[in-house]
Amino acid sequence: MILDYEQDDSTHEPDDWPTWRFRRYIDNKLSTSSSAQSYSHWESSLKESQGSLHNSHSSFGNENNSTKTMDFRSSEEASFPACEDQAFIDQESNEDPLTSDYTEESGSDDESFVTPEESEIDEPLDSNNPEDIMKYIVKKLLLKGHKGPKIVKILKEKHGISISYRTLARRRAEWGLQRVDLPLAHISTPLDPPIRASLLSSHRKGLNLDEIQARLVQETGVTVCIRTVKRYLQTLQLKLLENDVQTGKVSMDEVFEAINHARTSLLHTGIGYRRMRFLLMRQYNIRIPRQLVYDVLKHLDPAGMAARLRQGFKRRIYRTYGPNHIWACDGHDKLKPYGICVYGFVDAWLRKILGMFVHTTNNDPQHVGLYFLHLASKTGGLPLKVTSDYGTETVEMATYQMWLSYRFGGINGEEATKRMHFTKSNRNQKIESLWSQMMKQHNRPIIDSIVTEIENGYYDPDDEIEKLLFLFLWIPVFQSSVNIWVDLYNNSKRRRDYSITLPTACSPDYSYGTPEAFGTTDQLVNVPSQEIELLIAQDYPNCQEMFQHTPEWFRLIAERTMQQIGVNFSAITVGNVWIVFQQMLPSIRTELEDYTFDSSSSQSSQYSHQEPEGVGSIDEITGSSEVTCEYE
């Protein structure tokens, strides 16, 4: 304890002053202490510490007529109460000891951990050191939930230890007994299942407090303040800005391994640190700060980080009423030379991707019409308007949009025709800008991978067997990769942009699901799902066969080969698909070595055969001696 006193060397001798000071304290203690302590005990303690006190005092002996500040208390003196003078000084101070300079954390240092109990600490301690005993008692009192003033009172009344608030705060900092050093108690206040589910879902999506509050109102109808949302999150032991590396859940090696896996196996080499952070959170359940992701990416790919910083994208103003006002749709043909086609739907309000469909063609009106009905069944209705470019593939989709809008939108036939809007491809900017981002963030590494295999001679797109095996593997694998990219895109927050009127600084999934938070409403035209399912059953009775991307006979052979080598599609990614391709190709060639393909036209392929030994007749596999393989 630091004591301020004035000493006149002419009046008090250095050897007499500490003795007089402590004898005054002992006399006062013997007359007032509730716990009977013998005079010999205090006298012996005085003698043990007198030597160190004399040394501390004598270091100031050469200075005369000056005010001196000394810390003459030894480590053993922690069990002694403070002197009357200092106790009076500490009590008169108006400074909050819990927020003084001795406290290393801002705010209160005495948060309640468990329900306080008034029982005294009776557990034995294998130490006779007064400071260790005091530390042990203070720690137990803190774990019991007692706060600073209560601890000071218990120490004085039950243990005969007098200490000020300020000294207690300093001692706790020295002993590592601050609030941040103690284990938090589990708050067992139960929450209603709907509230709990909403909070957990919002936390997994990385929403902030305002977004969690709005989503809670939207999903449960419970209106609470931000402080209550914080309390709910504390009840569930959830943090908005978690750092799994700091808490020890993951190591830096695991972070590097996850990012390397995302870049090599998933080929996410074109995404920045913000998108990579969401990828780690959504796919690897790793929550770390953006700065840490930035540092790792800068270490792994410094050239790519510098290139992304130089690029800029100027966004156009696009005014819509709200979600499901306009659906923009278009096909993506950048991978069409390799047999992979994509058709996508996006909500124009905040460009949430409603669906991405991968197949060998995106020009078939039946496929596009079925895609549209699937989305309508999934969302529960139709948008006010669908916009697309001029093309024959949108004929059936336009028919469904106008017919269902006429039936369930409460409009006449003329108004229903305006619900389908055709425009030039370069003016369908919402979906076109999405293709640009998809190329940079997802497709470019995949195209490079395919071109590299072709250039190295590992894949021949003109070989019929290799082409069929490529489609058999790549269509479902590419669809899975697109699904991951869509999930990241829909749940990634956009930067705040004050130059546009559409929602910013939030994710498309959040704004699409909670339009009330942005002062608008959902524009969906509700259509019973039974009506949509009836249309699908009537117009597409063979919808399962429509989405087979290889002939049935080849699919059976390829699936049998996958079983032989012990591989399934759940273990195949765009990063290791070529390894599986090279493992399956020899077996399929061996099984089909006696079958010769005769490519008579660009749209169909017929083959003649001689039945090899040990292989069933091709008639048994296909039911016919001629099979036509059609693909774009």
UniProtKB/TrEMBL annotation:
InterPro entries reported in the protein's UniProt record: Integrase_dom_put
Compositional bias of kind Low complexity: 599-609
Ranges annotated as biased composition (Polar residues): 31-69, 622-632
Region of interest called Disordered, as start-end residue ranges on this chain: 31-128, 599-632
Biased composition (Acidic residues): 102-125
Domain of life, per lineage: Eukaryota
Protein name per the record: Integrase core domain-containing protein
Taxon lineage: Eukaryota, Fungi, Dikarya, Basidiomycota, Pucciniomycotina
